[in-house]
Amino acid sequence: MRRTAGRTGGAVAWAGQDAAEPAPEPAAQQPPDRQAAPQQPAPQQPLLQEPLRTEFPFQLPRGYVDESGTVHRDGVMRLSTARDELVPLRDVRVQENPAYLSVVLLGRVITRLGTLPLVHDGIVENMFASDLAFLQDFYRQINAEGHTRAGVRCPHCSEPFEVELGGSRLGES
Q1: Rounded to the nearest 5 degrees, what angle is found at the Cα of 48, between the Cα atoms of 47 and 53?
Q2: pLDDT tens for residues 8-63?
Q3: What is the pTM of this model?
Q4: What span, in angstroms and rounded, lies between the C-alpha atoms of 60 and 56?
């Protein structure tokens, strides 16, 4: 009833009277025709990584109308940084009215709008409400990297569907 344990290729093999099978002989003692070929690691496919996009073009549903009456619809928004979301919290307007956060935040991340030389929160606060809602949604989409929806199953009928997981307001995830 004696047992001995030996390692073969990282696995423990038991030999002796109680063992189900005898322990295999070390590779050096096995005949050449019974030796296992050394395992080659599977060739790895190179990961094709898409370059990081930091700017995203958009087109406003109505467009911003400047003081001369020119309509600006085409613009570019960049990805938000942590600083972009933190700095507006120190703004007095945001402290007095938290709903103003989205206006200040969008003024920081919109890099171009039509032929305007500069986009700032004063421009954003004078946009039509439908354009502001569009920009808030666009901000969420590009900064959430498409991970704001989750697949779930109805508890009653077991039918699969998707739900939106995004934050309720800009700057809240």
Answers
A1: 130
A2: 444 444 455 555 555 555 555 555 565 666 666 666 666 677 788 899 999 999 99
A3: 0.58
A4: 13
Output the 3-class SS for 3-52: EEEEEECCEEEEEECCCCCCCCCCCCCCCHHHCCCCCCCCCCCCCCCCCC
SS3 144: helix
Residues 97 and 127 sit within 8 Å (Cβ to Cβ): no
157 vs 40: CA distance, rounded Å = 49
Do residues 134 and 150 lie in contact, with contact meaning Cβ atoms separated by under 8 Å? no
pLDDT value of residue 143: 93
For residue 149, the surrounding DSSP H or E stretch is strand 149-153
Nearest to 143 by CA among 92, 102, 89, 95: 102
**Cα angle value 104/92/112 (rounded, 5°):** 15
DSSP state of 107: H
The token pair that represents 152 in the structure block: 């779930």
Q: Within 10 A of 101 (CB to CB), how many other CB atoms are there?
A: 20
pLDDT in tens, 56-71: 999 999 999 999 999 9
CA distance 63 to 161: 34
